[in-house]
Amino acid sequence: MHAAISDLARRLRDCDRLVLFTGAGVSAESGIPTFRDAQTGLWARYSPEQLASPEGFRADPRTVWAWYAWRREKCLAAAPNPAHLAIAELQRRLPGVTLITQNVDGLHQRAGSEAPLELHGNLHRLKCFRCGADGGDWPETLDPLPRCVCGGLLRPAVVWFGESLPGEVLARASEAGLQAGLFFSIGTSSLVYPAADLPFQAKRRGAFVVEINPQPTPLSRHADLCLHGAAGGVLPRLLAALE
Ligand code: NAD
Ligand code: APR
After folding, report:
1. Long-range contacts, 37-44 (Cβ 8 Å, 24+)
2. Residue of the nearest CA to atom 28 in ligand 2?
3. Catalytic residues per the record (predicted)?
4. Closest residue (by CA) to atom 6 of ligand 2?
5. pLDDT of 183 above 90
6. DSSP conformation class of 100
7. ipTM of the prediction
8. How many angstroms separate the alpha carbon of residue 151 from the centre of ligand 2?
9. Would you state the pLDDT for residue 48?
10. How far is the CA of 204 from the centre of ligand 2 (A)?
11. Range(s) of the chain covered by CATH 3.30.1600.10
12. Top-level CATH class of 1-32+79-120+165-243?
């Protein structure tokens, strides 16, 4: 991997359009469970259709709120790990870096990354389930469940199963990918669309695509370089090679 990282550092120095695309794996080393890890993943223990869908919320809003309150506690108790910190440092050091994330935990921002494109929203923000208006910050209590001024129930501002991604955010992410000279896909299973299509779009436009993941994914055989390792180990080594 040493030679690959040296070559990649050279590419980074010559690149002025870099996209960093992240998934739950980037927060795994902060102790936040990913979704699909067989034993520890969230979906191994909960039914996402019941907890991360409009139908599930309509049927039992209190349970969905309790689940997100549990996830939010884990996010607040977690600290950015070396992967988040290395990503924020790459953004400071290199020109033309766009950070796109599927994560909703806010750890990129806490690590110092500014304005990541949050394709699936943010757990720490609320919106109205009925009218979609911004719902401000989390309430002190969930009893009674918080409501919008329109009377509708508030919900976490996270994209759920079957919902569309925020169109403007997705368009900006897609545009960045299409312009990218170098596209990193870090800590994502590459299973969930339309987010998972971004590296393929970039590849079709000639970007050099790098995957950082301990496990293979559907992207692996299309990537130009696969670094099979944890993001918290690989990214700091890449940063050091840039010096
Ligand atoms: P889904 O098949 O119900 O919805 C995703 C499909 O919707 C994609 O195949 C895509 O074609 C289309 N789509 C969604 N937003 C779009 C947009 N803005 N522009 C164009 N096409 C769009 O898949 P899903 O697994 O139910 O997930 C739906 C959304 O919720 C995804 O963004 C996903 O990342 C998010 N989400 C998924 C999970 C999960 O585990 N699958 C959990 C939480 C949130
Ligand atoms: N470093 C890098 N990758 C890691 C690490 C790590 N330390 N630990 C785990 N991974 C990888 C796993 O191998 C897996 O490929 O992270 C990936 C996590 O995949 P998922 O759990 O599917 O998470 P993600 O790809 O972000 O899911 C996409 O689907 O569930 C929805 O909306 C949700 O945003 C999420 C989307």
Report:
1. 42/71
2. 192
3. 120 (proton acceptor)
4. 230
5. yes
6. E
7. 0.79
8. 36
9. 81
10. 23
11. 34-77+121-158
12. alpha beta
